[in-house]
Amino acid sequence: MEAAIETPESAAPIDERLLTDQLFEKLSEAIVAGDFAPGTKLSEPRLARQYGVSRGPLREAIRLLEERKLVTRTPRQGVRVIIPSLQHALELFTIREVLEGLAAHQAALHATRAEVAELRALLMAHRAEIDDPQTTFYRQETANSDLHFFIARIARNQLLFDLSCGEYYTLFRLYRRRHQLVPGRAQRAFIEHERIVDAIADGDAELAELLMRRHIASARKSLLSARGQA
């Protein structure tokens, strides 16, 4: 059973905004991880008991899930986890190919030595997981461990970052996790990441953009293959 969200006993009143954010993070990660299966109805009373919170912050967290397109609300049927659509996924991957290619291009122009070192450290952290023969997907479980998120951040373009890592970011992670269940995709994705980081480290903006676009296109193809439509 999920542990209750901890709040400081001395907090009076409790910062409901912080509590809402914590709930949103827990619920969105549970959806991405598949703990709440597609189509699952989210019961407010059950979730309130599960997380040990009041209904107010929970309702606000669910509203944020709606904004991020992770759940849908239907009159008289309540709130349910989104059922992934192949067409929607393909549209999202097509848009991200352009956005993330541009982010890699800008990152190659602006990344500092320290940021390149952080990118390489992130890859090293991923390698142990990828080398595990039991690995079936490339986790990158949080934004802090997501290479794509980091590259968008060091591109130094706030609008580009907002478009890449804002409203549709968590939904993209959900779709990305689905296609990474394809055998061998996790290992190929890691190799592609290494080449992208090398291009950024070399300051080769055109190559970094090309490799990132190929990487996203490869992910899109993998998604189609998983559905038997490649």
TrEMBL record:
GO MF annotation: an example: DNA binding
SMART domains from the entry? FCD, HTH_GNTR
Q: Which residues form a coiled coil?
A: 102-129
Q: Which Pfam families match?
A: FCD, GntR
Q: Which InterPro entries match?
A: GntR_C, TF_FadR/GntR_C, Tscrpt_reg_HTH_GntR, WH-like_DNA-bd_sf, WH_DNA-bd_sf
Gene3D superfamilies in UniProt: GntR ligand-binding domain-like, Winged helix-like DNA-binding domain superfamily/Winged helix DNA-binding domain
- Record-annotated HTH gntR-type domain positions: 17-84
Which of UniProt's keywords are assigned here? Answer: Coiled coil, DNA-binding, Transcription, Transcription regulation
Domain of life of the source? Bacteria
Annotated PANTHER family: TRANSCRIPTIONAL REGULATOR, GNTR FAMILY, TRANSCRIPTIONAL REGULATORY PROTEIN
* The protein, known as: GntR family transcriptional regulator
